[in-house]
């Protein structure tokens, strides 16, 4: 069964940090690009960051310099390190395997 499971969300104060993890199972993790998306209440889901098979990364302008995406193929895990968090980063964060497989999401709430 192909599955993605996110973890690491929570409540943090503005300026704080969180690290999200997404573990894949049921497929060969290393041959897929992976991405993190987020969806805030009343807003559309938006791309946060993506990482290619070779490790190339891409970020939304709103998170550049604050968030870092990385992957550990041996652990079948993609990470999102989030620093200098802001209230506007509050959302449910999802990981996806090339937009065809999605995790259940993890809530990130940043208080001001």
Q: What is the gist of this entry?
A:
With about 110 residues, the chain is mostly beta strands.
Average pLDDT over all residues: 97
**Quaternary form:** single chain
**Helix and strand sequence:** EEEEEEEEEEE
User: Per DSSP, what share of the residues sits in E-state strands of 2 or more residues?
Assistant: over 45%
Estimated structural class: mainly beta
Q: Mind describing the biggest β-sheet?
A: 7 strands, mixed
Shape: globular
Total strands: the figure is 11
Helix content: under 10%
Number of helices: 0
pLDDT < 50 runs, ≥5 residues: none
Radius of gyration: 13 Å
Please report the distance between the alpha carbons of the first and last residues: 40 Å
Overall description:
The chain is mostly beta strands and 112 residues long. Helices cover 0% and strands 53% of the residues. The chain has no helices and eleven strands. It has strands at 3-7, 10-13, 18-25, 34-39, 46-51, 57-59, 67-72, 77-82, 91-97, 101-102, 106-111. Strands 2, 4, 5, 6, 9, 10 and 11 form a seven-stranded mixed sheet that branches. The protein starts with a strand and ends with a strand. The mean pLDDT is 97.
Keywords:
112 residues; mainly beta; seven-stranded mixed sheet; four-stranded antiparallel sheet; 53% strand
Annotate the secondary structure layout.
Layout (H helix, E strand, L loop, with lengths): L2 E5 L2 E4 L4 E8 L8 E6 L6 E6 L5 E3 L7 E6 L4 E6 L8 E7 L3 E2 L3 E6 L1
Parallel strand pairs: 2-11
Antiparallel strand pairs: 1-3, 3-8, 4-5, 4-9, 5-6, 7-8, 9-10, 9-11
């Amino acid at each position: 069964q192909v599955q993605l499971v996110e973890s690491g969300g929570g409540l943090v104060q503005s300026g704080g940090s969180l690290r999200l993890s997404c573990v894949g199972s049921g497929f060969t993790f290393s041959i897929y690009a992976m991405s993190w998306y987020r969806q805030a209440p009343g807003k559309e889901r938006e791309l946060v960051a993506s990482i290619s098979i070779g490790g190339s990364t891409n970020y939304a302008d709103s998170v550049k310099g604050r968030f870092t995406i990385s992957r550990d193929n041996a652990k079948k895990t993609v990470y999102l390190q989030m620093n200098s968090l802001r209230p506007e980063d509050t959302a449910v964060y999802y990981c996806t395997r090339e937009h065809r497989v999605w995790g259940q999401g993890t809530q990130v709430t940043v208080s001001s």
